[in-house]
From TrEMBL:
Species of origin: marine sediment metagenome
Protein name as it appears in the record: CBS domain-containing protein
Membrane topology: Multi-pass membrane protein
N-terminal signal peptide: none
Chain segments annotated as coiled-coil in the UniProt record: none
Every CBS domain range: 438-496, 504-563
Length: 571
């Protein structure tokens, strides 16, 4: 339908133009924020705020509504990637710890937000039942933590260790806890305010049954789909189609969950959990493919989150409640995480920094607020503002605030805990090095006049394949390779008269110390070389050492092992 409208220059084309602009500008904004040493997520959200109705209104509420299926899919991708981090071994080792911390931080946020929001509401409008309902609803929603921004920051800074592992588990399970709390709280609030649905008053039992259906149904659907996808991937060893199978299954799980009223994030997470635990070796490549597929989805999702916010239309009373909500929720999360960590005897980094990683809220919180806006739209809160609209407005505004504040706190926690940079690949490390970091400065070389006897003794004592030849000023003039050396010994009787200058060949391929390591390695692979002579700079031409692929691989592997051992020690 979008493409059909777009073919005639209609709204579909406009939507495609907006999406293209959002992707491009969101990426640029993220780069600018990254250059300023802020997490990239902030750039996406700020660009969305500028493009949305709080800014130039290029992304309208109507467009966002039309893109709601995309937002659901994006949340599903996020849930799937989180599920991929929940290995069975981690739960065997930390399962009890995770559950204790989860309950402590979630319930603490519920109690602190509920109490303070209820008191402030009562001071503004002295109605005990109304104040209690507001406290229950906001408290329950506060338990949810947005995994997207938090996980994105942790992946951006390549973290690994006890804190990272705990954050992955908690943000994945927080949504389930929030759904349970909201089911109970909304049922009690409905009874307090005498809210009915379809002429029949809501009961607590009905609310609990609905919550159980959303949770258990989503988990069961995702688990079943995971078994089927694992069977398909095992039987169909087609690497090119693996991404299609995976994304197709994920989309089906999300669609069926939405159709049946199940929680889509939990269903997607269950799918990821099953894949990562049923096929530990094969699942690695599966999640890598999805991760390479996901960046444009993340960009658009966060741009739309920013565009969804319309913060200029909030009355002062709601701003007061929003401020109370942010402060109380942040304090409750930090207090509960610290208390839960102590009760569970968690590592010190978890007790100190976990709370800082739980500030973000997003899709699930907004989804719960949307449910509240429909259920409590007939209850008036302040003036002509009904309770449903108030809850939706408060959660939307605070989502923007905590999505701005939250990522820098996650970054701070990642660096303070010492876990940043511990989950790197060889490619990641290579980007951070230059040739100067890897050059072998003790590599043997010859002077132009060195006789054959000296050359042969040096070759016998080393295992290099290529030997640089330098002049009296230390400048590179050529190289001696073993293959060329054998050919030079063909003329009998001349061997004793040969010197290094006679045996060398031109050094066509060189690098300087300032060359990025990744560029040097790419050059070596393209030229099929095992080593390269390294010069101080192009103008000087002074020989300083040799860059070898074997040495690079060894050093990078040792550094990755060292970082992973540090991460294991912290757990």
């Amino acid at each position: 339908m979008i493409l059909a409208a777009g073919a005639n220059g209609g709204p579909g084309l406009q939507l495609l133009l907006v999406l293209g602009g959002a992707l491009f500008l969101g990426t640029v904004g993220a780069r600018v924020l990254r250059w300023l040493r802020f997490p990239q997520v902030l750039g996406y959200i700020l660009i969305g705020l500028v493009l949305g109705e709080s800014g130039f209104a290029w992304i309208t509420s109507h467009m966002i509504e039309r893109l709601s299926p995309f937002n659901i899919f994006a949340l599903g991708v996020i849930g799937f990637m989180i599920g991929g981090e929940l290995h069975r071994d981690a739960f065997k080792r930390f399962g009890r710890q995770f559950i204790i911390i989860l309950i402590a931080e979630g319930v603490a946020a519920f109690l602190v937000v509920g109490a303070l929001a209820g008191v402030v509401t009562y001071l503004i409008k002295p109605d005990v039942q109304l104040a209690t309902a507001v406290g229950l609803l906001l408290g329950a929603i506060s338990a949810a933590t947005a995994p997207a921004a938090t996980i994105r920051v942790l992946r951006e800074y390549k973290t690994r260790g006890a804190l990272t592992q705990t954050v992955f588990a908690i943000v994945a399970l927080d949504d389930g806890l929030a759904l349970v709390l909201f089911g109970i709280a909304s049922s009690i609030a409905a009874r307090l305010l005498h809210v009915s649905t379809g002429g029949k008053e809501l009961t607590m039992i009905a609310g609990l049954l609905k919550t159980g259906q959303e949770l258990l149904g989503g988990v069961a659907l995702g688990a079943a789909a995971g078994v089927g996808l694992n069977w398909l991937l095992r039987r169909r060893r087609d690497h090119d189609r693996a991404l299609t199978y995976t994304i197709g299954t994920l989309a089906l799980v999300i669609g069926v969950s939405a159709r049946l009223g199940f929680d889509t994030i939990l269903a997607s997470m269950a799918l990821g959990v099953m894949i990562t635990n049923l096929a530990r070796r094969r699942s690695g490549s599966t999640f890598e493919m999805v991760e390479r597929f996901a960046p444009p989805i993340y960009v658009l999702f966060f741009v739309l989150v920013g565009a969804h916010l319309h913060i200029g239309a909030m009355p002062t009373v709601l701003w007061i409640l929003a401020g109370v909500y942010v402060v109380a929720r942040s304090g409750g999360k930090m207090l509960g995480a610290n208390l839960g960590g102590r009760l569970a005897s968690a590592p010190a980094v978890v007790r100190k920094y976990l709370g800082m990683c739980l500030f973000c809220q997003g899709g699930v919180a907004i989804g719960l607020a949307w449910m509240a806006s429909g259920r409590f739209r007939d209850v008036m809160l302040f003036g002509d503002v009904n309770l449903g609209v108030a809850i939706m407005t408060i959660i939307t505004a605070t989502t923007f605030i905590v999505e701005l504040v939250g990522p820098p706190f996650v970054k701070h926690a990642a660096h303070k805990s010492g876990e940043a940079g511990l989950d790197v690949t060889e490619e990641d490390l290579m980007v951070s090095y230059t040739v100067a970091d890897m050059v072998d400065r003790s590599a043997p070389s010859f002077r132009r006049g060195d006789p054959v006897a000296v050359i042969l003794r040096t070759i016998a004592d080393t295992d290099a394949e290529t030997y640089p030849v330098v002049d009296g000023e230390g400048k590179l003039v050529g190289i001696i390779s073993l293959a060329h050396l054998k050919q030079s010994f063909g003329a009998e009787g001349l061997t004793a008269w040969l010197v290094a200058f006679d045996l060398m060949e031109p050094a066509d391929d060189t690098v300087t110390e300032t060359t990025p390591l990744a560029d040097a390695v790419e050059q070596m692979k393209l030229e099929h070389l095992d080593c390269l002579p390294v010069l101080s700079d192009e103008a000087d031409g002074r020989f300083v050492g040799v860059l070898e692929l074997r040495r690079i691989d060894r050093i990078l592997s040792q550094e990755i092992l060292r970082r992973r051992q540090l991460a294991e020690v912290s757990t």
